[in-house]
Amino acid sequence: MKKVLGLVAGLMMAAFTFGQSTIAFTDATDSYDKKATTSFNFMFSPVHTAEDISSNAAYYESYFTVTVVDAGDSGNTVKISLVEDNEMARRVIMRLLVNLEINSVGVNGTDVERNEFMTTYIMVD
Fold it and tell me: What fold is seen in the domain 22-122?
């Protein structure tokens, strides 16, 4: 019985962990203009280490640079700056999020699914 209860508790914890976003987009304000923006700021939870973020971002250096600053127990602040402002560079940000296994992004306290986040806040029509 203890094993069954332990398994159920473990599964519930896993479900709650996957349901919450582990990053927050900190640029989302009333004055945010995605067309004029070439750098994007995020707060990553401690789930993603600075080493993980930097090593994954290293694959995309021709598209953007990533600056990771330790924010203590809160995690890391991450700034993604486009090398050249074009559609491909913006699209490659999605690859970074996929590689880091980020399925949703917190925007002003609301979790936004990754594809919707990219369409709404990063990609330019």
Answer: Translation Initiation Factor Eif1 (3.30.780)
* Mean pLDDT of the 97-118 span: 95
CB atoms within 10 A of CB 4: 8
Mean pLDDT (the chain) is 88
Say whether pLDDT at 18 is over 80.
no
Q: Where are the domains of the chain?
A: 22-122
Helix H, strand E, coil C: the string for 13-79 is HHHHHHHCCCEEECCCCCCCCCCCCCEEEEEECCCCCHHHHHHHHHHHCCCEEEEEEECHHHCEEEE
Residue 31's CB is within 10 A of a number of other CB atoms, namely 5
Q: What is the pLDDT of residue 10?
A: 54
